[in-house]
Design brief:
With about 425 residues, this protein is α/β, with parallel strands linked by helices. The chain is about 55% helix and about 10% strand. It is built from 15 helices and eight strands.
Length: about 425
């Protein structure tokens, strides 16, 4: 299912534009990785159905197929989800750092497409801040646990010391770079990096003392590789079963360890049926990863506390943002009343009214104007038994329970 809902980098602008054009959608961003596809959407209440309909239609999925795998978070739950994703707490590899870079890339793509506004912009920036704080204030990143690390650890488990082995890395992105770093750190003997763009392969190969080739040269060098790690963004298979079969004949029963981290897969799954080939996908690495996660569980609990704190702050900002127009209108109304009463007070002074009387007029008239509408509404609330509105008035005006009447009359309020 993950393979069927991938958004490739080249199609993101079009997909973002279509998503933004859905009824009720105001802002949108899309995160699509090997382990998740998330839509982050600022939308009007009740507009979920339009987003789900678009998502299913875009990928050719029926509602039945989609609903079995879909999760939806709203409001503070959505805010918490984004912060947990950014911090690596919702990854298959707990605390892995690559997701933060992927989320920043998704945010950049949405900004370039003009689909991010104030709401998602603030949310992403807050999520990035939280992720940095989690990384700094907890031990969640203290041990090198990642899909790439797990792949290298499994290679060592199967092949033993790596100093006499050759690795073929297919791709030149973040995951492959991380795998190259771990392999080099474990004393790998020789490294070959294959990529569609030879320049990118050469850049990475130069850093780790490797050899760069184009994807089309893989069949020529495949027999040399004891380790193959693939992670590209290609929509098509890179390594087919026939190329692998020829390479294995040349290797004369020497085993080869392969890991396909890509979504969609780079290596034809049939390759795994060949004798002396140990082929793993990202899902197969789960058990290896579990062994390296126990030290991070306490740190994850600390991270959750940090996230809870910042979810509360963001929701408080959001609440303030939503009432900002109301506050502005309330202040404008009060300002207009003040200017009108002040002008009349000035005219009375100019006509000879003593200053003390003019001040009393100003205070009395301004008070009446400001309190007239609230007083009328409180009386109506009392007549209609709308106790929630009366309670709100007590809160808004910071009144003791005994200082507000029930709206039934009495008192000298205007």
């Amino acid at each position: 299912m993950r393979e069927r809902v991938v958004f490739g980098p080249e199609e993101l602008p079009r997909a973002l534009g279509e998503l933004r054009d859905c009824a009720g959608v105001e802002e949108a961003a899309i995160l699509s990785t090997c382990n998740r596809t998330d839509l982050y959407v600022g939308l009007e209440h009740g507009a979920d159905a339009a987003v789900k309909h678009w998502f299913g239609g875009y990928h050719g999925l029926s509602h039945h197929e989609l609903d079995r795998h879909l999760y939806t978070h709203h409001d503070n739950h959505a805010v918490r989800h984004v912060m947990r994703v950014a911090s690596g707490l919702d990854s298959m590899v707990l605390g892995e750092p690559q997701i933060l870079g992927q989320l920043k890339t998704a945010y950049g793509a949405a900004r370039s497409s003009g689909t991010v506004g104030t709401l998602l912009g603030k949310l992403f920036q807050q999520a990035f801040f939280v992720a940095k704080r989690v990384r700094t204030d907890t031990a969640i990143g203290s041990s090198p646990v990642s899909v790439a690390f797990a792949a290298v650890a499994l290679a060592r488990q199967i092949l033993g010391r790596l100093s006499s082995h050759t690795a073929l890395l297919i791709g030149a992105g973040e995951t492959i770079e991380l795998a190259a770093r771990h392999l080099a750190g474990n004393g790998l003997g020789r490294m070959i990096i294959a990529n569609r763009t030879l320049e990118n392969a050469h850049r990475l190969a130069t850093e780790f003392g490797g050899y760069a080739i184009e994807l089309g040269e893989i069949p020529v060098h495949l027999a040399e590789a004891d380790i193959v790690i693939a992670s590209t963004g290609s929509p098509d298979t890179i390594l087919g079963v026939e190329d692998a079969r020829r390479a294995m004949r040349s290797r004369k029963r020497r085993p080869v360890f392969m890991v396909d981290i890509a979504v969609p897969l780079d290596i034809d799954p049939k390759v795994g049926t060949l004798e002396d080939v140990y082929l793993y996908t990202v899902d197969d690495l789960h058990d290896v990863i579990e062994e390296n996660l126990r030290s991070r569980e306490d740190a994850a609990r600390q991270a959750e506390e940090i996230i809870d704190q910042h979810v509360h702050r963001f929701m408080r900002w959001l609440g303030t943002r939503e009432v900002r127009g109301t506050i502005r209108a309330f202040r404008d109304e009060a300002g207009q009343a003040r200017e009108a009463v002040l002008e009349k007070a000035h005219r009375r002074l100019a006509a000879g009214m003593p200053p003390e009387q003019a001040l009393q007029y100003l205070a009395h008239t301004l008070t009446n104007r400001l309190l007239h509408a609230p007083t009328v509404q409180i009386r109506r609330a009392g007549a209609g038994a709308r106790h929630e509105l009366i309670d709100a008035a007590r809160t808004l005006f910071e009144l003791d329970d005994d200082s507000v009447d029930d709206g039934s009359g009495g008192g000298n309020a205007p």
